[in-house]
Automatic annotation (TrEMBL):
It catalyses: 6-phospho-D-glucono-1,5-lactone + H2O = 6-phospho-D-gluconate + H(+). Belongs to the glucosamine/galactosamine-6-phosphate isomerase family. 6-phosphogluconolactonase subfamily. This is Probable 6-phosphogluconolactonase. Pathway: Carbohydrate degradation; pentose phosphate pathway. It comes from Datura stramonium (Jimsonweed). InterPro entries: 6-phosphogluconolactonase_DevB, 6PGL, Glc/Gal-6P_isomerase, NagB/RpiA_transferase-like. Pfam families: Glucosamine_iso (PF01182). Its EC number is 3.1.1.31. Residues 15-246 form the Glucosamine/galactosamine-6-phosphate isomerase domain.
Length: 260
């Protein structure tokens, strides 16, 4: 099917604290918008530093003003480990975010941690399809894939997003909603991950990037730098149907500033 790219906005903010404040307002505003439009807000989380950067959402004024009962939570990727394991993105989100706001437990979609990577990916995909059938998740009119309201993504120094790594074929998967990987170059090796057709069908995507170690890859994605092997990294493939917003602190944006 034809693809359609929405707007791209780059926010160059001074500090990580400024990113955290801007991200909270952005998420709260989108929550109000989507709940008003369709009665729910579907949010996809990732791991890494994202949950810490979301910390302002669980503080006033947002903790008491957001309608948490209408939120639905998913993960763009997950390590195939027990949910209570320190490597689990679910545990990271639960400890830092979900345990502090009253989102209904029935609206929180963790992976089945009793399955193999292949089984966990198939199970998660089947559950997404059930939500499409029950009208919780609409299908994108552009791509035909499930359309989430907001996807919150980070990025690795190699330019990977979700668990779609530059050196792995999963970044090219075009049919599945969820795929699995058993040899992640970043531990732990077994993971499941949304595919790019699902990621790029989201209405809104936030790329939340802080820290100087990511500055070069930010310049590859948004500036003038070229990838060392000449192959565009996965972060360059991210696009949203409505708007992709990059939240950068000054360290992450430092090479953009110097390269003009």
């Amino acid at each position: 099917m034809a693809t359609q790219k929405g707007k791209k906005t780059v926010l160059n903010l001074d500090s990580e604290e400024d990113v955290a404040n801007a991200l909270a307002k952005y998420a709260a505003d989108l929550s109000e918008k989507f709940i008003k439009e369709k009665g729910s807000f579907t949010v996809v989380l990732s791991g890494g530093t994202l949950i810490d950067t979301m910390r302002k959402l669980v503080e006033p004024p947002y903790k008491d003003s957001v309608d948490w009962s209408k939120w639905w939570i998913f993960w763009v990727d997950e390590r195939v480990v027990p949910l209570g394991h320190d490597d689990s993105n679910y545990k990271l989100a639960s400890d830092g975010f979900l345990s502090k706001v009253p989102i209904p437990s029935s609206n929180i979609y963790a992976i089945n941690d009793k399955e193999s990577p292949e089984g966990a990916a198939a199970d998660y995909e089947a559950r997404l399809k059930q939500l499409v059938e029950s009208k919780v998740l609409p299908l994108s009119a552009v791509s035909g894939f499930p359309k989430f309201d907001l996807m919150l993504l980070g990025m690795g120094p190699d330019g990977h997003v979700a668990s779609l790594f530059p050196s792995r074929p999963h970044r090219h998967e075009k049919e599945r909603l969820v795929t699995f990987i058993t040899d992640s170059p970043k531990p732990p090796p077994p993971r499941i991950t949304f595919t790019f057709p699902v990621i790029n069908s989201a209405s809104e995507i936030a790329m939340v990037i802080t820290g100087a170690e990511l500055a070069y890859m930010v310049d590859v994605a948004l500036g003038s730098a070229h990838p060392p092997d000449g192959i565009p990294p996965p972060c360059t493939e991210v696009s949203a149907e409505e708007e992709l917003t990059w939240f950068l602190d000054k360290d992450a944006a430092s090479k953009l500033q110097t390269s003009g």
